[in-house]
Design goal:
about 850 residues; 30 helices; Jelly Rolls; 4-stranded antiparallel β-sheet; alpha+beta; about 40% helix; 21 strands
Length: about 850
């Protein structure tokens, strides 16, 4: 009987067994019967395909399917059912080598399990969850202080790194507060208050030195493929990040090295800050003091300039421009791109002493035999000194944010104090403040004046009190009066505004959002939606690219990645910074243009500057200089985040690619199906012969012969193989050493694909899983807590709501901010 039922068409099988079938055109949904019908309906499938290994006696993988035969198992044994769902969906079960049920049979099984689990979720009492009092993390602290007081420096950069949980550093449960952290807050509060009210402290000039990265130097007069007239692309330039403590002037002193042919024209030299050229100097090779025969020695030469720079971390680049132009005729070719070395005939330099002619001739003949480059001028180091001519006094923006009584420069009446401190506290605490709180802060102002300090000093003391208050340092959500224990309750309008602003901006609510909360209109139909659209369109929403996408996609880890320099000499600071910016701009375009989140996987465009364009070697694409521009990738192997060099680099080892790491990254961050941790005692992969006698793929296939490894690696490795045409820093390749790349993949469910394009096609068919994964990650980030079982219904509803709108980014955000977990919290109450 079981066998005859199993081979009925899916719809007939559903009708006979009571399966809840997803409606299709021309058919109605068949409701699933309750009682133990759910378990009985699935048993023929398990009896035929699974029980031999998963009964009470064998219990392979710790699963006893017989225990799931009793009614109510979807509630009682939820984890087991979800495991079954995952294993069948991915094709892991039944395992390879065992008879496989038809796809129709498996789809019918999956529909019934999913429908039953959703029914259980809907029937469960609503539980929005509770967020631990949320300490501001470093990014939130910096952004909030800037919004509150208008200061431009980033005080939280001096704090310890924030701990992370569930993949993000804004999780309330892990943002603890130690005594040392509190000391940092106290010190920062004083500095922030003084900068806002009196301007930055006058600093003594200091000197910092940055050495070149030591990449292989581009040599010879022949223009390399990566040549950029700005010099930014070539390894002869220097790229670094420097923290400038205050606004002011800074002296830049550049050390030069290498040689330049005699007779060359002077070289322009550029100083770039944050991708913008701020200074041009000249290297006059002929004017150098010590030349030797046929080439000019630049070793020990220095150039110096003085530039105004804003406080903060800045990308500094020093470049020798047009290095392959202005060479003597004997180094010239028919065009700049085809210059070749022409053997130089013996010729005395102008003004050379005749009595040394023979010495010159002998030395010239010796140098002709040497393989010493005649054109390898380079920047070896930069020293940055300052500040000088430091900007003094407070900024007008800071004074306007503080002295709201209208007196920016003195003339403060006693009535100004409660207005000033009340406004600051209301904005800092992200809620209305009580008369008692205003009185306490006003008392600090009066206390300072009684001790002989100025009125501004008193306001500074009140600002410090605000900045060390737990109401500023923590986002606190309180139980409503008379709230019953463990019951859902709506957030207040100000708590909702705070959640929304830290979700989308990593910062405190602005005036417009706070006005909606003050007027109790934020939840009115259309108001919340309009605020979300306004906030997503704001430049502040770039925080989503930096803080959400940077952690979800893990490209923030680029700052600590150190590829093997001997194997990947082209990886330098300029390339690292360019990789990260590409992915940030790509994600930002999806937010700002309100595109479908599927564009993250399938988008055939990206943003490139000249450095990254030359690194990608995409034919027909010309990008000049450090400015990024949108580039069409149609007809290329690249597309979507999977082929971004940032993602490919952070999912590799320093010396080689890793299909395992890349496959694991896809399972965790794209399909929301993370594999379990590897069991202890698994031997490491032997990669000593990879690239010469064998391929990495062959080594992994040997590794998978270990039964302990096979189940997980059967899922991970094929996904990673699809990206093997990209090396450990994301450059396209066809061979690994002398071994041809095989980028095909075969998944446990029988689907096969070829390369990155084929992998994208596979992921496109699994777009529902990606959308649910994205919703899970974004909701986790939005709430600042890990998701629990009771959140699954919300995730499902968010995903379905967004699917009806083609998964546009704003539709996911709107569904999240109107969901119960975001709008509500579970009260603790008093017992």
């Amino acid at each position: 009987m079981h066998r005859s039922l199993i081979f009925l068409p899916p719809l007939s099988l559903a009708l006979l067994l009571g399966l809840a079938v997803v409606p299709t055109s021309g058919h109605q949904t068949i409701p699933a019967k309750r009682g133990i019908v759910f378990e009985q309906a699935l048993w023929p499938y398990f009896a035929k395909n699974c029980v031999a290994c998963h009964d009470t006696k064998t219990k392979a993988g710790g699963l006893d399917l017989l225990s799931l035969k009793r009614g109510g198992s979807a509630t009682r044994s939820r984890e087991e059912w979800e495991s079954v769902l995952s294993k069948v969906k991915t094709g892991e079960m039944p395992p390879q080598g065992s008879p496989k049920p038809s796809q129709a049979e498996s789809r019918a099984l999956l529909r019934q399990i999913e429908a039953e689990l959703e029914r259980v979720d809907r029937a469960a009492p609503p539980t929005p969850g509770s967020v631990t009092a949320h300490r501001l993390n470093r990014a939130e602290y910096n952004n909030t202080v800037q919004e509150l007081l208008g200061v431009s420096f980033r005080p939280a950069d001096e704090f310890a790194q924030d701990d992370s949980g569930y993949g993000f550093d804004n999780i309330g449960d892990v943002l603890s507060l130690s005594s040392s952290q509190m000391e940092k807050y106290v010190a920062a509060s004083e500095k922030i208050a003084r900068v806002a009210l009196f301007g930055p402290e006058l600093l003594q000039p200091a000197l910092a030195r940055h050495e070149a990265s030591g990449r292989n130097i581009v040599v010879g007069p022949t223009i390399p493929a990566s040549y950029d007239v700005t010099g930014l692309n070539v390894p002869n330039s220097l790229h670094t990040t420097h923290r400038f403590p205050v606004d002011g002037e800074y002296v830049f002193r550049f050390g030069l090295n290498g040689t330049r042919p005699l007779g060359s024209e002077p070289l322009p030299f550029g100083l770039w800050i944050d991708g913008k050229k701020v200074q041009t100097l000249t290297i006059d090779a002929e004017g150098a003091s010590g030349f030797s025969f046929d080439r000019q020695d630049l070793s020990g030469r220095t150039l110096e300039c003085r530039v105004k720079v804003k406080a903060g971390d800045h990308w500094v680049a020093a470049t020798i421009e047009r290095m392959y132009e202005g060479l003597p005729p004997e180094f010239s070719g028919p065009s700049p791109s085809k210059r070749k070395v022409v053997p130089r005939e013996f010729k005395l330099p102008p003004g050379f002493p005749p009595e040394r002619a023979e010495e010159f001739r002998k030395r010239f003949e010796e140098r002709k035999k040497e393989k010493v480059p005649a054109n390898d001028a380079r920047v070896s180091a930069v020293e940055i000194g300052g500040p000088y001519a430091q900007t003094q006094g407070p900024s007008a923006a800071s004074l306007r944010k503080i002295f709201v009584c209208g007196h920016l420069q003195g003339g403060h009446a006693p009535a100004c104090t409660p207005k000033i401190v009340g406004n600051l506290a209301r904005r800092a605490f992200r809620r209305p403040v009580t008369p008692q709180e205003i009185a306490r802060l006003s008392h600090l102002v009066g206390l300072a004046q009684k001790n002989g300090d100025s009125y501004e000093e008193g306001i500074g003391l009140a600002v410090q009190g605000i900045l060390v208050s737990p109401h500023f340092l923590f986002r606190i959500e309180r139980d409503q009066p008379l709230a019953k224990p463990n019951t859902p309750q709506l957030l207040t309008q100000h708590e909702l505004a705070s959640r929304l602003s830290y979700f989308l901006w990593s910062s405190t609510p602005d005036d417009a959002l706070r006005a909606c909360a003050d007027s109790q209109t934020l939840r009115k139909p259309g108001v919340l939606e309009a605020q979300v659209q306004r906030m997503l369109a704001s430049p502040k929403s770039h925080a989503l690219a930096e803080n959400f996408a940077g952690q979800w996609l893990q490209f923030r880890a680029l700052e600590s990645v150190k590829p093997d320099r001997s194997r990947f000499p082209e990886f330098d600071e300029y390339l690292r910074l360019s990789m990260r910016q590409e992915t940030e701009l790509f994600f930002d375009s999806i937010v700002k243009e309100d595109q479908s989140i599927l564009t993250l996987l399938l988008g055939k465009y990206t943003f490139l500057n000249e450095r990254l364009a030359s690194f990608y070697k995409i034919p027909g694409i010309t990008v000049v200089g450090p400015t990024f521009r949108k580039v069409d990738l149609t007809g290329t192997a690249r597309g979507g985040i999977l082929t971004h060099a940032s993602v490919l680099t952070v999912t590799s080892y320093p010396n080689r690619t890793s299909p395992v790491l890349r496959g694991k990254w896809i399972l965790e961050n794209i399909l929301n199906a993370p594999p379990p941790a590897p069991p202890p005692g698994v031997p490491n992969l032997d990669v000593s012969a990879v690239g010469s006698a064998t391929s990495l793929r062959q080594q992994l296939e040997e590794h998978r012969k270990n039964p302990t490894c096979a189940s997980c690696h059967a899922r991970m490795d094929p996904l990673g193989f699809g990206l093997e045409n990209f090396d450990a820093i994301g450059a396209f390749r066809k061979n690994d050493g002398t071994v041809a790349i095989d980028s095909s993949g075969s998944l446990p469910d029988g689907r096969t694909f070829q390369g990155a394009d084929g992998l994208r096609t596979i992921l496109k068919t699994d777009s529902g899983e990606f959308a649910q994964c994205f919703a899970t990650k974004l909701l986790t980030y939005a709430l600042g807590r890990g998701l629990e079982r009771y959140d699954r219904a919300a995730v499902s509803a968010i995903t379905k709501s967004s699917a009806a709108k083609n998964y546009r980014f704003s539709s996911l955000v709107q569904a999240i901010v109107t969901s119960k977990p975001f709008q509500m919290r579970q009260s603790k109450g008093s017992k």
